[in-house]
Amino acid sequence: MKKDRRVFVVPKKVKKPKKKMSKRGKIILFSSLAFVIAAVTTGLCLYFFLPREVKYSSYMRSYAAERGTTTLTKGCVLENSVSLYEYDVNNDVFITSKKYYNDDTMSYVMQYGLASFEKEYAMPLYSAVLSIRGDYAIVTVQTNTNHRIGLIRFRGNGITTPKTVSDFSLVYDGNNTEQMYFCGDYVCVMGGLDGYSSSASFTVFYDYTHGEMLPCFKIRYGYNATNAENYSILQYDDYIVAYCSTDAYFFDIKKDLYNGVLEYAKTGAYTPFAVVSDAMSDCNGNIQMFYMGNGWFLRSNTLSSSSAFDGFNLCYYTSDLFGETSLVFTRSSADFYNVKTRKTTSISQVFGVVSVANTYSAGDYAITANSYNNTSIKVYSYPCLNPADMVREGKSIIYYYYRPYIELTKDLSETEQYFGALGEMTYCVVDENLNVYQPSSMLPVVFIDGVGFECADPAFDPYYGDACIFDEKLEKKVLLKKSEQFSYSVVHSGTDAVLIACIDAEKVKTESEEESETEQEATLEEITYGAVTPAGKVIVDCVYSFLTPFYDGYAVGTRTEGGQEKVFRIDLFGRETELADAVLVKDGFYVFAVGEKYGIKSFDGTVLSEAGYKGIAVLENFMVNGVLQETYIVASQDDTLEIMKVEKK
């Protein structure tokens, strides 16, 4: 094939002379550029410097509602008449017990062991299990003459039987809770393992994670002889605070360690209010310390009395277990100290601090909520939820008293005079850099299946008024309006139903006039429960003395009829079916009886376990590690104890 040898010629472009921009064109061009630059600059300023709407969900977790119980998964079986003593919700450990005959004392003694859902870690051979942290436990053993305290590792890689970490050479001092205890990443011993004393003026910190107790450093705070009290010591990250009723000291492990001794940070000493007059002699002083993250501690300081005194800046009503209210007068202050930077700051509205809920206090809240959820007292029939679990990592809920009216007027009556300082409890949310978010709700809002309601206060007491729910923008919707006779509180929510608690003022008044009824009984009878839809349609009126949340369309409640308490299953249309065989109702299932044997049914009537057990105990946990609900069942049969886990859809 012949090559194409043609040449293609591309004609050259002829350059045309450029036209000069007219003066008018230049003005238009530069005006347009100036407008664009100004618009971009303004936009950037608005973005970076003006406050932007913060979503509540960026501070708080949301939870998916639990569905109906479907199966029971069987786990560990404990033999030889071992019983369940306690459940450690934070470490997911069952403390077991067994009664032994002691030949030396010629009497029966109770000893304790450790187990999980899957296996038994240690038989009941310890005279006490004092504390658990992860895979480790501080326990005591009994000898012929005394009890001795030590540390064991009971689980983990390669651990088949408990391993001794300390040698149990220390005689147990049952009167001193600070003798040996977990403190953050360490185990603390007053005076040290070789020189323990209940009056030791220093505390030794030990690393216990390498198979033995390795001394790391000590601080010069243990027993305060002047006050006759021990220092409380907290350790988070690289920071420590030791405090008692009269002083507090802060430490930075990386900065303040000299020759094995931690010296307190230069500005890390804190002294509370002083009692300056005889009129203040009945005041009680109190220091509280809360860790906020990133080196920040909230330092709270109060002087309180049942009567007014010079210098008080807040008063509030408090109530006891019997519903008796009293007025407390207090002088309060609070600030924030950063051990890392040595800086001190404050949040203007936060001075009457009640408590802090965050990841650092989640364990304490979980223990308290767990004890309420697993008690038989009716007043805690609604699920007690853990506010420290619902706030996201790095964020903290600060509960505090605020004063709606600041000015005090001295020439008014006593009630009116103190009204200016009368505090109401509310909250704010802060991050680890102390950026403050002040929501519009009175108490923290928890979202379950997208339906929000104000969670209980730090004491797990619901707030009564209107029954309200919230959307994700914290816009409130009133489901039931408070009246002179009825006050309401939402205590649980979900897509299908909202659980309502109600106090009938007329009923309370009538019962309080009956001398034959104790105050405790009257308090329990004041609260009734009902349910409405998130749209506000009433499912059942508040007529039940106990009512569970709805699980797959069913709830279970109790109501007295003809002098007898009866149990009913309620569907989403409010229709009732009596459950004559129910003997114990829990959230999502109930225990039924056939003769003297017990079994388990789901709310829809499905038999999950036949009635073949001599006894059944239920352990319910709400809001632990981001999970709304987790439930264990411990069933006894002859001389065995079987642990089961409730599985949901």
Give a count of the beta strands, DSSP E runs of length 2 or more. 51
Average per-residue pLDDT, rounded, comes to: 85
Number of helices: 6
Query: What would the principal axes of the Cα set say about the shape?
Result: globular
Task: Please bin the fraction of helical residues.
Answer: under 10%
Major sheet characteristics: 6 strands, mixed
Task: Record the strand order, biggest sheet.
Answer: 12-13-14-15-22-21
Given as residue ranges, the uncertain stretches (5+ residues, pLDDT < 50) are 1-16, 46-52, 405-420, 515-522
How large is the radius of gyration? 32 Å
Distance between the termini: 78 Å
Strand content: over 45%
Classification by helices and strands: mainly beta
How would you concisely characterize the structure shown here?
The chain is mainly beta and 649 residues long. Helices cover 10% and strands 46% of the residues.
